[in-house]
Write a structure and sequence with these properties.
Structural class: alpha/beta
Strand order of the largest sheet: 6-7-8-3-9-10
Radius of gyration: 18 Å
Distance between the termini: 37 Å
Shape: globular
CATH architecture of the largest domain: 3-Layer(aba) Sandwich
CATH superfamily of the largest domain: P-loop containing nucleotide triphosphate hydrolases
Order of helices and strands: EEEHEEEHHHEHEHEEH
Bound molecules: adenosine-5'-triphosphate, magnesium ion
Largest sheet: 6 strands, mixed
Strand content: 15-25%
C-alpha cells in the first residue's frame, strides 16, 4: 500500500501540493488527472523517492520512502532511452536474469508493444511514439511491484494508444501490480482505472475521487462509461479553465 499522510511539497516559494492524504491499495489501478503544472509528476516523484515531501510522509507498506526503491518501475513523461543501445539493449538492461532468459523476456515485451521488427534499431531511428513504447516495454520487463506511469501514452497516435491501453490491461491480468498512472485523457482514465482522482490548480488538493465500477469490458460509448466521464469532466474542466 502507498500512503500519503498530510503531504505538502514546495519548490522554494512555489507551493505545489498541499496537504494530500491518500491511500493506494495493492494491485489497484490508480489514475491521477489535473491541470498542467498542478503537481502530478511531483506526486509520482515522491512515491519513487526522487523527491522528499516538504511536510508529511509518504509510506510504502508502512515504511517511509527515503530513497529510490528497486520495487518501483517508472515510465517517465519524457521517454528516457539510452541512444547507444538498441531497442533490445534498452529493454534487456532492466531485467536481472541469465543472458538467454533476459533476451527472451525482452523480446516478449518488445513484441507486446509492436516493435518486433525494430528490436535491433537504435533510438534515433524511431518515432516519438515508438520510443515511448520501448520505455513501456522496459518498465514492464522489469516487472516491478509498483509501476508509475507519467502520461505514458501521450506521444502515441489514437489507434496505437487504444491498442496499448488494451495491452496494458492484458499484461496486468497476468502480472498483478499497483499502477499509478497520470494522464490528461479522461477517456483513458475511465477505461483503465479502478479509481480516479482529480487534482485542483496549484497549490493542489484532491478535489474529486471516483471509483470506476463497470462490469465486463469497458466501452467508450456505453452509458455508464459516459456517466463517469461527464462527472469527472465536471470537476476537471473548471480547474483547467474550461467553462460550461
Ligand atoms: N525539481 C523542481 N524544481 C523546481 N520546480 C519544480 C520541480 N519539479 C516541478 N517543479 C514545479 O512544480 C510544479 C508542478 O510540476 P509537475 O511537473 O509536478 O506538474 P504536472 O502536474 O506533472 O504538469 P504536466 O501536466 O504539465 O506534466 C510546476 O510549476 C513545476 O515548474
Ligand atoms: Mg507531468
Amino acid at each position: 500500500m502507498i500512503e500519503f499522510e498530510n503531504v505538502s511539497k514546495n519548490f522554494d516559494n512555489l507551493e505545489v501540493i498541499k496537504n494530500i492524504n491518500l491511500k493506494i491499495k495493492e494491485n489497484e489501478f490508480f489514475v491521477i488527472l489535473g491541470p498542467s503544472g498542478c503537481g502530478k509528476s511531483t506526486l509520482l516523484n515522491l512515491i519513487a523517492g526522487f523527491e522528499k515531501p516538504s511536510k508529511g510522509k509518504v509510506l510504502i507498506d508502512g515504511k517511509i520512502v527515503e530513497k529510490p526503491n528497486k520495487d518501483i518501475g517508472f515510465v517517465f513523461q519524457d521517454y528516457v532511452l539510452f541512444p547507444w543501445k538498441t531497442v533490445l539493449g534498452n529493454v534487456e538492461m532492466s531485467i536481472s536474469a541469465s543472458k538467454k532468459e533476459r533476451r527472451n523476456i525482452a523480446i516478449h515485451y518488445i513484441e507486446k508493444v509492436g516493435l518486433k521488427d525494430f528490436a535491433n534499431e537504435y533510438p534515433h531511428k524511431l518515432s516519438g511514439g515508438m520510443k515511448q513504447r520501448v520505455a513501456i516495454a522496459r518498465a514492464l520487463a522489469y516487472n516491478p511491484k509498483i509501476l508509475l506511469m507519467d502520461e505514458p501514452f501521450g506521444a502515441l497516435d489514437a489507434q496505437t494508444r487504444k491498442l496499448m491501453q488494451q495491452e496494458l490491461l492484458n499484461i496486468l491480468k497476468d502480472f498483478k501490480k499497483t499502477v499509478v498512472f497520470v494522464t490528461h485523457s479522461v477517456i483513458e482514465a475511465v477505461y483503465l482505472a479502478d479509481r480516479v482522482i482529480v487534482m485542483s490548480k496549484r497549490p493542489s488538493k484532491i478535489i474529486f475521487e471516483s471509483k470506476i465500477k463497470i462490469d465486463g469490458e469497458r466501452n467508450y460509448l456505453d452509458k455508464d462509461f459516459l456517466k463517469y466521464r461527464e462527472e469527472i469532466l465536471r470537476h476537471l474542466d473548471p480547474e483547467i479553465g474550461i467553462k460550461e
